[in-house]
Amino acid sequence: MELFDLRVTVERIEGRSVCGLAVGDWFELVNSAELRLPDGKHFCIFALQSVLPLLPAKQRQLPESDWLERDSLVCCPDPEERVVMRIERIGKRRMNSSDLT
Predict the structure, then answer these.
(1) What pTM did the predictor assign?
(2) For residue range 21-59, what is the model confidence (pLDDT) as tens digits?
(3) With contact defined as beta carbons under 8 Å apart, do 54 and 68 qualify?
(4) pLDDT tens for residues 6-24?
(5) Burial of 14 (0-12, 13-18, 19+ CB in 10 A)
């Protein structure tokens, strides 16, 4: 099977950043289930929880008519911060499904 590696990047902050994220901060999801952060950086768990449910679907090629194939922006649930993140596909990887759980 083929899965996309993903990068989630803070695209903009429309409120005030209390959690310490800044525009350009990112994490990657690679090898199906590995989260990677740049050394010395963090990612707010509340922003992370808002994007996590979408990542397994974004790892797969979806039909063009599927809204998730076209949309890539996710907003943090904190109304004071309004952190907007972009999910992008950064590579495709062939994996053996029997190696995964």
Answers:
(1) 0.90
(2) 999 999 999 998 999 999 999 999 999 999 999 999 999
(3) yes
(4) 999 999 999 988 899 999 9
(5) exposed
Residue spans of the domains in the chain: they are 2-95
Q: Which residue is it, tokens 């996309």?
A: 4
Helix (H) or strand (E) holding 83: strand 83-94
* Cα–Cα distance, 19 to 74 (Å, whole number): 16
Alpha-carbon distance of 21 to 47, in angstroms, equals 9
Measured CA angle at 66 (ends 63, 67), to 5 deg? 150
Task: Give the phi and the psi of residue 49 in degrees, each rounded to 5.
Answer: -65, -25
* Contact partners, residue 15, CB within 8 Å, separation at least 6: 78, 79, 80, 81, 82, 83
Beginning with the edge strand found earlier in the chain, give each strand of the sheet holding 73-75 in spatial order.
34-36, 26-30, 2-13, 83-94, 73-75
